[in-house]
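Morning. Coffee machine broken again, so started the prediction first thing and wrote up yesterday's gels while waiting. Chain of 594 residues, entered below exactly as on the submission form.
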Amino acid sequence: MIAVLCVTPAALATARTIIRLLPEAELHGLSGRIDDAPVVFSDTKAHIGQLFKDGHTIIGVCAAGILIRAIGPHLIDKQAEPAVVAVAPDGSSAVPLLGGHHGANELARRLAEMLGGHAAITTAGDLKLGVALDEPPPGWHVANPAAAKPVAAALLAGKPVRLEVEAGDADWLSHLSFAEDAEPSVRVTDHAVMAEDRELLLNPPVLALGVGCERDCDPAELAALVRDTLEAEALAPGAIACIASVDLKIDERAVLDLARSLGVPARFFTAARLNEEAPRLKNPSDIVLKEIGCPGVAEGAALAAAGPEAELVVPKTKSKRATLAIARAPHAIDPARIGRAPGRLFVVGIGPGTAQWRTPQASAAIAAASDLVGYGLYLDLLGEAAAGKTRHQSDLGAEADRARMALDLAGQGKSVALVCSGDAGIYALATLVFELIEREANPVWRGTDILVIPGVSALQAAAARAGAPVNHDFCTISLSDLLTPWETIEKRLHAAAEADFVVCFYNPVSKRRRDQLTRARDILLTGRPAETPVILARQLGRPEEHMRIIALGDLTADDADMLTMVVVGSSESRRIAFNGRDWVYTPRGYAKKL
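Came back before lunch.
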């Protein structure tokens, strides 16, 4: 996690910008009341220290001294410390304080570019050499990070350093001066080797692992095949650029788990594309050709991923239910340019409306998405968080179409946020997503990574605005009979009345449905008094927000619409006056103990 620490309201605008542009970041409020900060900590120093000890990257939108004093007592292991960057409240500068070569320098550069400021890099290697040997380009791996310091020191002192390139290329080091024969050295290799004294080992991303397996293959079997093959061939795991397979395996757990365990992306190709690699295969199979339309999955996928100039360095090898082949590319492999990636679908609850009630996880998902799908009003509520995203909006009532569109877009390999108000799993679209998956079984959707992100529900927001009405047992009932027969709804109302639940009504009244709310009122009156408090919360968290508290006996259809949350107290719920306004709470039995 990247924790963005917002210390004062003056820094909030900059913190918001960072959150919007860094999908993996989460906002943390530290002192006072900070609008839109979901968490407020009274002990700033202790909280920063704990984040640091837990290994979280820290971006403090504050004075550097605040971070230094908080983190100072916890500085123990330089090699293990996370990145810490101080950002000026106005975004004018980003200063990497710790972990410069553990991501802080690069993060400071990213932040400076985002905010239009300056990255104050102070590490000597970056300034004089123009590179950090222990922070190579994306995809590269440093096999022995401790060796970077003496090699960089030698370069900084003008002493000779040898460069050996055994695999790929090292163009990012081409501006440095190397000697043909010297004891300090940089070795670029895709082999697993023992480093010599003062030798820095760098693994370039030049290996593509092509894999195939039977359906529902044990992930441990495929992982063991890969591990044993790499050891037998003395190939470095750090040189693996991606896992590749046929698109029929885009939802295969063994393949996806392998990619996650190695920390590399998985890419998938159609059988037709793999068939193009047939002339280069060393072990073509007529059986595989007949079954899926190409003569080989492992070898074909490895070659397709590594490119036309690649060579097959490990022909197909197999276990009982899995196959593996490895191809080497002459240059670094960029997985973003090859094959098909599994799509991602975030089913996001954004709360009732205000950004104050939007969780950091929801904000991160929206920031990470390329496409937003939702009812137009809900997308509008995102404000600047929707900037730069492709919007796919539809009218109220087209819920199934929206869920299907989101799945289709994710099936194309896109990162999609299906936006719901309140909580995505409470009378919202999360259930439709899974219903469509089960009912339609569209092969295009296979492999989509789905994450349902909770949000503040309308009932929670209404309860908070009114006091504490749902602090004891409660239930929710939708009064819409579009999807649920009224006879079923009526049974639930009678049960709620008999059990004396606090009842939260969704969809209480519409233009077509004018009598359900009053019928529900009459049923509840059989189990609680007419003076039972009823909370009418409309447009919560929006400029049009309106709150009223009335008695159950006075409730009519004119008191609510589809934008109103109706919360009916139990027989124990209390309405009290305090500080010039009315509140509602439901005791939890504490009164008996007081």
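The longest strand covers residues 311-318. Going to sketch it on the whiteboard this afternoon.
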